[in-house]
Specification:
Layout: E1 4-5, E2 14-15, E3 49-59, E4 68-78, E5 85-88, E6 93-99, E7 102-103, E8 106-110, E9 114-118, E10 128-137, E11 144-146, E12 152-154, E13 175-184, E14 188-191, E15 194-195, E16 199-201, E17 204-215, E18 222-225, E19 228-233, E20 239-244, H1 252-269, E21 277-282, E22 293-294, E23 301-303, H2 308-316, E24 325-326, H3 333-349, H4 354-366, H5 370-373, H6 388-405, H7 407-420, E25 425-426, H8 428-439, H9 444-450, H10 459-462
Length: about 475
């Protein structure tokens, strides 16, 4: 996600959005557990199973913005025998729940977003089972945004999936995804991944999309509008699909730059990890609430327009956040710090001197700002997992790391990281260990100062290598 970070003269104004934690998938029944074990969001996710696939089927009429019909099947593998389990779903009236085709003995709602299910038969440990939930009602505005022209868009971090389908809503449980969206004829539904067949019958059109690589729930999306859709291909044949809401900016140069940005980042991070690319450019929402931009997998969401600055951040997330996802929300820097620095790499590619401009200028502006330096990059605290200062301090940390270990080791670390953890989950302490291994350097002092410290790093870590000549204090 990109967010405005423009308060410091030295930083280019950009709109930006562990030892690994093994989450507690306990053997307790669903009624005894409130979540999967995230220390920041203890009610998120559900123990007892790992989702392998979502088949989400929705019907939506923009003339009736307070209503969505849903029919979702969640396929999962039980990590132990289950007499009951829960899913995350916010709002809606649930009409029925079946488990492997048999009606559940009971289902009930609890808390802010729990759907508790008692299957007719115990699910054996290790077994694969399918839960089908039929539901209807008003989508929750935390993730579902009604657009002023009558369309709708789903985007939000750390939560959005529960606004429109039942899920195991935590980034540690990734799954493949299929979307079937039925809308009135003349409207278009855009989703993640690759398009499937589109059919029209009885004045309604059904669009199908599938993302065949595992995806975190908050990166799933559907956007419904009278889109203008441009379809091209990247030089390697990867489909580039970009959809524009009415009234948004369609700039062929900016659209083409998506491919340029992607190719440049692939040269730094390794091969692009997904089978499709592009973007969804949405108009203003009714309530003014929206993400600005979000790294919805394979097809980032942008507000109003797409440009190279926004794309450099959101496309970087396809590696850092979407392909390699966090183990829990203490590790948000693995997503945002790297995406924020990717924009600086793009500026450098265009001729900027990051040492003298971005880095030295930022440090000059920030050195007397203790609140900025108090932000820990790993485990910053609940409510700070996506704090703007984390983005900016993390990008500066990565540039200092690059100057500490040298370009070869730094970019080799990034490529090793995206390769070794592709389509999985990882933690910040794991990144620290990899950086030390690849560089052959003892980096404990560096990371203690930058990632775990709450004051400005000592000079040897603040101005490493050639940055020492820029120390004007």
């Amino acid at each position: 996600m990109r967010r405005p970070l423009s308060r410091h003269r030295g930083a280019t104004a950009v709109l930006t959005t562990a030892t690994a934690l093994t989450l507690a998938l306990t053997a307790a029944p669903a009624s005894a557990a409130t979540g999967i074990g995230d220390p920041y969001f203890p009610d998120d996710g559900n123990p007892g199973y790992d989702v392998t696939h979502y088949d989400v089927r929705i019907a939506y009429d923009p003339a009736r913005t307070d209503h969505l019909d849903g029919d979702t099947t969640v396929t999962a593998r039980a990590t132990h025998a289950l007499d009951s389990f829960t899913l995350d779903l916010k709002g809606f009236t649930v009409a029925s729940v079946t488990v492997d085709g048999t009606p559940a003995t009971s289902f009930s709602r609890s808390g802010a977003h729990k759907l508790a299910v008692v299957p007719a038969h115990r699910v054996a440990g290790g077994a694969t089972f399918a839960v089908r939930v039929k539901y209807a009602g008003k989508p929750d505005a935390e993730g579902w945004h009604t657009l002023k022209d009558g369309g709708a868009d789903v985007a939000g971090e750390p939560h959005s999936a529960t606004s429109w389908y039942p899920s195991n809503d935590h980034p540690s449980d990734k799954a493949t995804f299929a979307l079937t969206a039925t809308v009135p004829e003349g409207w278009t539904a855009i989703g993640n991944g690759l398009p499937g067949p589109t059919t029209t019958e009885g004045g309604r059109t059904t669009f199908r999309w599938h993302e065949d690589t595992p995806m975190v729930t908050y990166a799933s999306t559907v956007a419904i509008d009278k889109f203008t859709v441009h379809r091209t291909k990247l030089p390697d044949g990867t489909p580039l699909i970009t959809a524009y809401s009415p009234g948004t900016t369609i700039d062929p140069k900016s659209e083409a730059q998506q491919g340029e940005v992607l190719a440049f980042l692939a040269s730094k991070f390794g091969p692009y990890p997904f089978s499709s690319a592009g973007g969804i450019v949405i108009g203003a929402s009714v309530d003014g609430v929206g993400p600005g931009a979000l790294e919805t997998q394979s097809r980032p969401t942008y507000s109003g327009a797409v440009n190279d600055v926004a794309a450099s951040h959101e496309v970087a997330h396809q590696w850092f956040g979407d392909s390699v996802s966090i183990t829990d929300w203490r590790n948000g820097c693995l997503n945002e710090c790297f995406a924020q620095y990717a924009t600086q790499l793009w500026f450098e590619h265009q001729g900027s001197d990051l040492d003298k401009g971005y880095y030295a200028g930022s440090i000059d502006d920030l050195k007397d700002d203790p609140s900025f330096w108090s932000m820990k990059l790993y485990d910053p605290g609940p409510g700070k997992e996506l704090d703007p200062d984390l983005y900016e301090k993390g990008a500066l940390m990565l540039h200092a790391l690059r100057r500490t270990v040298g370009d070869d080791a730094f970019f080799d670390t990034l490529r090793r990281w995206t390769h070794d953890h592709a389509y999985g989950n990882a933690s910040f302490p794991q990144f620290e260990a990899l950086a030390a291994k690849v560089s052959g350097k003892d980096l404990q002092g560096f990371f203690d100062a930058w990632a775990h410290g709450t004051t400005i790093p000592p000079k040897q870590y603040l101005y490493p290598g050639g940055l020492g000549a820029l120390n004007r204090s």
